[in-house]
Amino acid sequence: MKKNSIVLIIGLMSLALIGVLAMQFYFLRDSYRQKSQLFDESVNAALTAVAGKLERREVVDFAKVQQERNIEKSKQEQAKQRQLTEQLRLQTQIEELRGKLDQVYQKYKIREDKLKALYPNVVNIENWFYETYIRRPQYQDLVEINIIKTPTNSMYYQEDVIVSATKTIPRIEAKDDSTRFLIIHFDDYKRLIGRDLFVLPPRSDPKLARKIFELETKLNKLSRQNARYEFNVYDSVAMLGGKKADYIEDVAIGMELAKRPLKDRLNVIIVQELLKEELAQREIKAPFNIEIWSTSNILLNNILNEAELNSPINTTKYSTALFKGDIGAAPGKLTIYFPNKKAIIADNMGYLLLPMLALLFLLVGCFAYTLIIIFRQKKVSEMKTDFINNMTHEFKTPVATIMIASESLKDPDINADHKRVQKLANIIYDENVRLGNHIERVLDLAKLEKETLKLDREDVHINDLVAAVTDSMQLRMQNIGGKFSVDLAATKDIVVGDELHFSNVFYNLMDNAIKYSKGDLHVNISSKNIGDNIVITIADNGIGMSRDHLQKIFDQFYRIPTGNVHNVKGFGLGLSYVQDILRRLNGRITVKSEKDKGTTFEVILPIKK
Asked: Which residue range or ranges hold the Histidine kinase domain (predicted)?
């Protein structure tokens, strides 16, 4: 593969990876913004609920206190006070039940808002319509969905999705009070492509509503009983506060309660508990700071849950007025803030972050793996090119020799000389054998790669085999002026394997020592037993190798570069063959080498038990 192609592939893959990262960043930022908005709405709703409960609690508490005092002052009004107590109790129960009913509605509202945020075309349908048309398959075709365009004040139209029936059939009344929605799906041309039914819990709790109705009925009955005395709960509170009984109820209560200092009207423990409860109902359980202000002075600055938190300047604060029912401006303000708001929202987004990070790591891993494969294939391609060049050099010499010898045999004068003919025939034969050996080595490598090479499993005396290979190499060693030193000291030398391939292993190692020799070559060959293994060491004082070459010598086709001089014969297959054969015969090979100092190979084979 050309360098320009590789650069183009890397550029395109990098661009795609950057695009994926940008899309993920945009999605996370948008999700964070939505989560932050929902968080703000939930906190504000909790503050509003707490302020309302505090105001209602104050009214009830103040009325109870005034009621007790009124009972003590006049025994004659005990009957009226009992009526008042009952009314207050009923009123308290009604308010508590209304609060619970409001919580049910708020939970429903949150789910409804999430549904409408997810699907733009959501239509609420009545339960009788669902029972009459949608639930019964034979009447589903009567359901009609239309988009109605209504002109606005400007030049635009407002589109509304209307669900109706094309034919009126006897109505089937609703069987439950669940809230049902049709999710309408349109294509880009506003054509209907599908619809889904989504069911939410009821907007209200019928049991709570029924209980409130019963309590209100009872309260109205008590109020009518007190009407003959021209007396009700708010009149009593106004009278006990020193006001006239005919003041309107809100003014009377507001003026009486507003007389008290703000710090006397609040119970800090109750405020904290109410805040915790309201936030927990909205699934917010993180620590927060609370502040209570009276006009411009701070009355309370407390840290909940003993969390050592500070308020940064840019922290979002949430505030609500206290006792808004008082006459005039509200006397106080309740403020809370979350110094670790970002961490809270990030925790809520954990289910999004983990898959996205996993996908990102997968993409980066695939990108890196692809680059590794590309460079590895480029390296293999270069090595194969070198292999072809080496093979050309190795085959060229014997072919040229055979060609010259063959042409010589055509000469009549040479044909008449029997000795010269015999000599040329021997040269042709030797060169053919040489070519055959080269071919066999390449074929053996192919068999190794295809796992088709069959190895014998027989007892082999390694000491004898190494000695025989050394004897066969003596002539080559003498020709270059070198020598072997043999010390086969292993007492246990029987291994299980293929004798032919074992001999090829040691031949290749000794052949490399001779090929890459310098000056006075000295090769030490030894064997010894270590544990259940026999270790055969072949050490030379040749040219050695650098650390970079040492890591690659077992790769196929790899040869230590010698420049443009082709003075070292071979294909770069010998050590690859050695390592593969030893691996198949449960052995292994190690190598140590220093540049210009020599190389040491150790062949480790398991002894037959």
From this structure: 390-609
SS (H, E, C) 526-558: EEEEECCEEEEEEEECCCCCCHHHHCCCCCCCC
**What is the 3 state secondary structure string of 230-293?**
CCCHHHHHHHHCCCCCCCCHHHHHHHHHHCCCHHHHCCHHHHHHHHHHHHHHCCCCCCCEEEEE
Give, for 604, the enclosing helix (H) or strand (E): strand 598-606
The count of domains in the chain is 3
Count other Cβ atoms within 10 Å, centred on residue 231: 17
* Containing structural domain, residue 139: 115-203
Q: For the segment 217-263, what is each residue's pLDDT rounded down to a tens digit? A: 888 887 777 665 544 555 554 454 554 544 444 555 556 656 667 77
Q: At 493, phi and psi to the nearest 5?
A: -125, 15
Distance between CA atoms of residues 462 and 561, nearest Å: 33
- Burial level of 465, CB count in 10 A (0-12/13-18/19+)? buried
Q: What does the alpha-carbon distance between residue 127 and residue 171 come to, in Å, rounded to a whole number?
A: 11
Q: Terminal CA-to-CA distance of the chain, rounded, Å?
A: 51
Same domain, 141 and 273: no
Q: Tell me: the pLDDT tens digits for 441-456?
A: 666 655 555 555 677 7
Residues 263 and 197 reside in one and the same domain: no
Tokens of 365: 């891993």
Q: Name residue 151's beta-bridge partners.
A: 157
236 burial via Cβ count (<10 Å: 0-12, 13-18, 19+): buried
Strands 143-151 and 192-200: unpaired
Rounded Cα distance, 203 and 338, in Å: 31
* 8 A C-beta contact, residue 512 and residue 553: no
